[in-house]
UniProtKB/TrEMBL annotation:
Superkingdom field: Bacteria
Signal peptide feature range: 1-27
InterPro entries: Leu-bd, Peripla_BP_I
Lineage of producing organism: Bacteria, Pseudomonadati, Pseudomonadota, Alphaproteobacteria, Hyphomicrobiales
Keywords: Signal
Matching Pfam families: Peripla_BP_6
Protein's UniProt name: Amino acid/amide ABC transporter substrate-binding protein, HAAT family
Domain Leucine-binding protein: 39-392
Family listed: Belongs to the leucine-binding protein family.
UniProt xrefs under SUPFAM superfamilies: Periplasmic binding protein-like I
Residues that span the membrane, as ranges: none
Length: 409
């Protein structure tokens, strides 16, 4: 009898150890759909065609960056499978592509989908499905709403913060300004306009003397510029995407309208906006920045810029180096890699959002010195600092301090 007891005791001890080991293994590795021991499947939606196709290079840069990460062994041994679809900046198409990514491709999450109307169209779907809509490529204020939409998070400084910073500058330097606004007729354009009015406060109704909105389906915004000039405004707030921003700068020069020109940050790229519009026509435009401009000689020996150049040379040699959208794609991809590394072997959707909401003072090589990425469970706005800049010669000159423009959701 004792021998049997011993054998049973040894068996139960071995069983207990095995159970312990297996529970330890499962505690170490947790996966949701789209993640395995060897792969992390990431979805993305970009306007590779349509009215804002200039932004398509963001998706191409991200793909190139993930190729770099994969070539270096992946993230914790896992390769990134980046699936990127075109929606032509059309919200119904965005919905179709998001469903395809989540239900057919079975991605772990959707990363950096571009545009305010497209992201607005999929926000409820992503949150109902509990699939992260992470680091969306739009600065609308509504992405910072962790209570209502815990699965959606922004990335860049929000549009209202940016507008308030311009309003502050106008109030200080041109208190009697007569302001004309051109804005895209959607959530993106209206967010900027709201921020400007909030920033001007009680003076908004007297200072803003003309507003013109345009649709992305319009071939040109020339007639809007003519109308705004006729208003007699001496400040022009230009809330447009790249194609229309270049048109506006050109038309201003053509008709000899020379107001103090504020250009929203999303169209500050020298490569895709300023150069096509013409350097002469772009002098003294004011915008804002949070990432380094590769065309600016001040970053010539900057380690962050050197790393960017090495990346482009090896993984995206055909990319237009002076297009600021490449630096944007590079930087947000680095932000995502930081989050995925922090997830370790717990690649659940819940943990991805948890790690994305736990970033503290992250410095990335492409961000301006002093600008850091910070998030928390109650703050889904990773970057909330900007610096003003003025276009001189063939480059942007940064001026003033780094300004924080926090605006709640």
């Amino acid at each position: 009898m004792p021998a049997i007891h011993l054998r049973l005791g040894a068996f139960s001890a071995a069983f207990a150890i095995a159970a312990l080991l297996s529970s330890g293994a499962s505690a170490q590795k947790k996966y949701d759909t789209g993640a395995t021991d060897t792969e992390i499947k990431i979805g993305n939606i970009m306007p590779y065609s349509g009215p804002v196709s200039a932004y398509g290079v963001i998706g191409k840069t991200e793909q190139a960056y993930f190729n770099k990460i994969n070539a270096e062994g992946g993230i914790n041994g896992r390769k990134i499978n980046f699936i990127s679809y075109d929606d032509g900046y059309s919200p119904p198409k965005t919905v179709e592509q998001a469903r395809k990514l989540v239900e057919s491709d079975e991605v772990l999450f959707v990363f950096n989908p571009l545009g305010t109307p497209p992201n607005s169209a999929i926000q409820k779907y992503m949150n109902t499905k509990k699939v992260p809509q992470l680091f969306v490529a739009t600065g609308a204020t509504k992405w910072n709403d962790p209570k209502e939409f815990p699965w959606t998070m922004g990335w860049q400084p929000n549009y209202q913060s940016e507008s308030r910073i311009y309003a502050k500058y106008i109030l200080k330097n041109m208190p009697d300004a007569r302001i004309a606004v051109l804005y895209q007729n959607d959530d993106y354009g209206k967010d900027y306009l709201r921020g400007l009015k909030d920033g001007l406060g009680a003076k908004a109704s007297s200072m803003i003397i003309a507003e013109e909105s345009y649709e992305t389906t319009e071939p040109t915004i020339d007639s809007h510029i003519v109308n705004l000039k006729a208003s007699g405004a001496d400040v022009f707030f230009n809330v447009t995407t790249p194609k229309f921003a270049a048109q506006a700068i050109k038309k201003n020069a053509e008709i000899g309208w020379k107001p103090l020109h504020f250009l929203n940050n999303v169209s500050a790229s020298i490569g895709s906006v300023i150069k096509p519009a013409g350097f002469d026509a772009s002098q003294n435009i004011i915008s804002s920045a949070y990432i380094k401009d590769p065309s600016d000689p001040q970053w010539k020996n900057d380690p962050g810029m050197n790393a960017f150049d090495e990346f482009l040379a090896k993984y995206y040699p055909e990319g237009n180096r002076i297009d600021l959208n490449l630096m944007y794609g590079y930087t947000v991809a680095q932000g995502l890699v930081h989050v995925l590394k922090a997830c370790g072997d717990n690649l659940t959707r819940e943990n991805i959002m948890k790690q994305a909401a736990s970033i503290q003072d992250l410095e990335l090589g492409g961000l301006l010195p002093g600008i850091k990425v910070n998030t928390s469970a109650t703050d889904f706005a990773p970057i909330s600092q900007l610096q003003l800049m003025k276009f001189k010669g063939e480059k942007w000159d940064l001026f003033g301090e780094i300004i924080s423009g926090d605006v709640g959701g």
